[in-house]
Structure formats: C-alpha cells, structure tokens
C-alpha cells in the first residue's frame, strides 16, 4: 500500500538556507569553529522552541560545502533570533566579523545564507512512503487527500477552506 502525504503548512512559510564552504581544507582552525557554531546554534534553538525554529535539515553539497535548510514560524522570529544579544548567534557573528576585519578568514572559509518568505499558494509538497521530512517535519504531515491529489490543487489550498474537489473523468 502506498502512503502519500503532504505538509500541513498554513499561511506563509519562512525558509532559511544557511551554510559554509571550506575554501582551504588545511585551515581547520578557521573553518571548524564556523561549523561547530552552527551546531551550537541549532542546539540552542531546539532547546527554546519559542524562538521560532520549526524544523531543519542538515545537508552537504560537496565535501567542501555544508548547509542547513531551516523552517521558521515567521520572518520576525528569525530576525529576532539573529539580533538577540542573549543568543549564541550574536556572539558567533561578532567573532566572525572580528576575524573578517583582520583578514584572517579571507579566502579560508565562505559563509552564506538565503531567506525566502513564501506566501500561501506558492508552495506544495508530496511525500510517498516517507516519514515527516522537510516542510512536513516543520509543519506537520497530513494525508494527501486533505489538500488534493494534484499539485495544482495543493497550490490552490488556502487555510480555513475546504480542499478543492477533484474532477472525475
């Protein structure tokens, strides 16, 4: 039996992609602290769900590039965490900026992030025989029929409305 599900996201979805690239493998003393800081920030966020991180997926793009896909409650909560003086992010970012200003990191390790605020009706998901993953892990997982069998139906879903009825041939 095939089990198909979709994410139970409601309203807009906030996605942050954040990562690092090791430019010089031998500069372990410079890139390892960056990698460990990300792990520490994720632990801090998992211990305090009120900060707004709903879910995350750790990924690698190559032996040099590592990143995290993060799902947030809102862009306001993401920004509040990024600027909170009591959060580890504040300390880690200050250290990184100091090293960057002195030229210690230049060319050794790259860092990046991209943030997307996706309005309702501009995302959809399907999972076949999968445990909750990605968007479904962050927002909950429901049977596919609740949002529609076809992608166009899932894109058309709006919070608080009944699912679109499928046409039969």
| Gross morphology | elongated
Helical content class: 25-40%
SSE run: EEHEEHHEEHEH
Strand fraction: 25-35%
Largest sheet report: 4 strands, antiparallel
Q: Helical region count?
A: 5
> Which residues sit in consecutive blocks of at least 5 with pLDDT less than 50?
none
Instruction: Report the radius of gyration as a whole number of Å.
Output: 19 Å
- Taking the alpha carbons of the first and last residues, their distance comes to 24 Å
Number of strands: 7
Question: Which sequence of strands runs across the widest sheet?
Answer: 3-4-2-5
Give the integer mean of the pLDDT values: 90
- What's the assembly state of these chains? single chain
Task: Report on this structure.
With 169 residues, this protein is of the alpha+beta class. It is 32% helix and 27% strand. It has five helices and seven strands; from the N terminus they run ββαββααββαβα. The protein has helices at 28-47, 75-83, 88-101, 135-139, 151-156; strands at 4-7, 13-22, 53-60, 65-72, 109-118, 127-128, 141-143. The strands form two sheets. A four-stranded antiparallel β-sheet has the order 3-4-2-5. Strands 6-1-7 form a three-stranded antiparallel β-sheet. Strand 3 (53-60) and strand 4 (65-72) form a beta hairpin. Helix 1 packs antiparallel against helix 3 (88-101). The chain starts with a strand and ends in a 13-residue tail after the last helix.
